[in-house]
Design a protein that fits this description.
- This protein is mostly helical and 108 residues long.
- It has one domain.
- The protein is 57% helix and 0% strand.
């Protein structure tokens, strides 16, 4: 006879995993903000910049925003910036030619 599944335990495990992933995402976003020096911006300025990027649908304009030189952006390669931006706005990190970059100060 087959062992019955404990759906409650499975659901709790999935909820725990989702909570852990959300916590990690928030922590990584905070580390990113600090690493690029955006922690000097007000919350409104940072939110406005992210909204503009998230609302931009044209690939050319997105690329221009991504490659734009801002303070501390020289610390990241273009592929790292693409990965970071796509991660922040919910894109796939499994882009061709883009690997998970190491942020400055987090070298192992």
């Amino acid at each position: 006879m087959r062992k019955q599944r404990d759906f409650d335990a499975d659901l709790k495990a999935l909820e725990d995993k989702a909570r852990e992933l959300k916590t990690r995402k928030v922590r990584q976003l905070g580390e990113l903000v600090i690493a690029i020096g955006a922690d000097t911006l007000t919350v409104e300025e940072l939110a406005g910049a992210l909204i503009v990027l998230a609302e931009t649908k044209e690939a050319g304009k997105r690329e221009a925003l991504i490659s734009r030189r801002i303070s501390a952006s020289g610390a990241f390669s273009t592929s790292a910036r693409r990965f970071i931006i796509s991660s922040v706005i919910g894109g796939s990190s499994n882009q061709v030619g883009v690997s998970n970059p190491t942020l400055p100060g987090n070298r192992r």
